[in-house]
Task: inverse folding
């Protein structure tokens, strides 16, 4: 799997559905193989995989492993096309939207993560009962299996906060999101307790944007930012049924400036914690 430095401004901004990415890669393999005048059997012999495996890869039914990609490159001219195409392959992760998967992979190697949300509590801070409330409000309704996959994936993703103590996590959340009490009072109690627990470590900073404020730097909507180990920043913006990974430096720079100004406008971490404690006590 490529590290975060492999994501450039010219990469796809929205990850394709897993089946689409596999079919696209398979079509590239087939086109190069046919251009080289090789049958599937001949090509299979060169890459040391069976004819049936070659067929499965070309039809997008099988995820090629690294050895297949490398041997196929050597057999088909070593142009680098297959290595580059393989970077966009996805097995698919149950419970994660297709457009979010690339960002989720980048989160795992980031040295800094910043999140602003005005619609709902960020996924990394959601309690299980809150996730279930979100799923139950989804339209059209999720099947039971899909709902459980979503809950499991969301809770597993939160292990980042435990497994990466040297990564900084910064969150700015609108007070109105917590005032909504999605799922009812009991769900909100559990949510507030969960947020207070997860935001306690010193590498996690939580700030609340007050419901009444005269200035607001992120009126354009929610956003996520991350810094890679090589010092590059990426941004991610999400809407209904879509998400966009942003690598253009000028665009990312503008978003970074907005987020920095927003942090100066939000309550301090200490005051934010105090507000959450008061909200919890009022339930």
Result:
């Amino acid at each position: 799997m490529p590290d975060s430095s492999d994501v450039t401004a010219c990469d796809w901004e929205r990850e394709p559905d897993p089946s689409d990415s596999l079919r696209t890669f398979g079509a590239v393999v087939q086109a190069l193989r046919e251009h080289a005048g090789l049958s599937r059997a001949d090509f299979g012999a060169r890459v040391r995989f069976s004819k049936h495996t070659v067929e499965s890869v070309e039809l997008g039914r099988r995820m090629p492993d690294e050895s297949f990609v490398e041997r196929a490159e050597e057999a088909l001219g070593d142009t680098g096309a297959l290595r580059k195409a393989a970077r966009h392959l996805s097995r698919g992760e149950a419970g994660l939207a297709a457009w979010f998967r690339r960002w989720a992979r980048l989160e795992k190697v980031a040295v800094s993560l910043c999140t602003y949300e005005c619609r709902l509590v960020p996924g990394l801070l959601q309690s299980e009962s809150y996730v279930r409330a979100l799923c139950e409000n989804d339209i059209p309704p999720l099947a039971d299996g899909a709902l459980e996959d979503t809950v499991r994936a969301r809770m597993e993703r939160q292990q980042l906060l435990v497994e990466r103590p040297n990564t900084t996590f910064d969150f700015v959340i609108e007070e109105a999101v917590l005032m909504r009490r999605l799922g009812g009072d009991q769900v909100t109690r559990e949510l507030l307790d969960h947020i207070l627990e997860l935001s306690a470590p010193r590498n996690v900073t939580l700030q609340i944007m007050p419901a009444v404020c005269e200035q607001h730097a992120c009126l354009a909507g929610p956003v996520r930012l991350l810094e890679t180990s090589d010092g590059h920043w990426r941004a991610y913006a999400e809407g209904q049924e879509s998400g966009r990974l942003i690598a253009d430096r000028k665009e990312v720079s503008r978003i970074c400036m907005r987020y920095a100004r927003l942090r100066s406008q939000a309550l301090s971490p200490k005051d934010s914690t105090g507000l959450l404690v008061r909200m919890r006590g009022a339930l």
